[in-house]
Amino acid sequence: MEPTSPTATKPIAIDVWSDIVCPWCYLGKWRLDRALANVEGSYSVRRRAFQLRPETPRFGEDGAGGPKNDHLIALGHDPARLAASQARVTQLIAAEGPELHLGRSRNVNTRAAHTLLAEATDPALAEALLERLFHAQMTAGLRIDDPEVLEAIAAEAGLTAAARRPRPIAEAAVDDDLATAAKLGIGSVPFFVFDRRLALTGAQEVEALEETLRRAAE
Length: 218
Known about the structure:
Blueprint: E1 12-18, H1 23-38, E2 43-49, H2 68-74, H3 79-96, H4 111-118, H5 123-140, H6 147-157, H7 168-184, E3 191-194, E4 198-201, H8 206-216
Parallel strand pairs: 1-2
Antiparallel strand pairs: 1-3, 3-4
Helix pairs in contact: 1-3, 1-8, 4-7, 5-6
């Protein structure tokens, strides 16, 4: 098989597993965007679903939608360390552009949001939708498990009315993403796979992402 290069007709595939309640995933998105802008080439980014806490109650169930920080502290997170970690990621993301207000974030099950994202088959539309979902969760403090909130976000992003109704194919795509993550042993996100052979985990520095993009082109 001939190696793929940035100038080849077929774009380099980049798979990114992330969860919409994960601020480090938001940082990873912005850093990947910067790396792609800095390294000339043709790329195809596929956003894949991951749930850090799939057991979180869904919309309408008892315990759903409370303040996320209260939930994390109840799980045993030290309040001071939690505040320090959130302050750090907020500062890092602010350097990329968005302003976070993580104290507003709600404790939500992200399955419905991931399913909605799977409906956006156009890459540009998927990116616009993902950006709005991250903003809703981490800046606006909206409940991204609420069907009405998701409907409004999808309409704002430009998803058609037909595509805003979850279909079995979108549910199956989320199931496939979660199953593939389990098969690969992914335990934390963001998790990047370049050209189906090079992997990085965590919100890597832009330079590390750029270097991996160049390696993927070799």
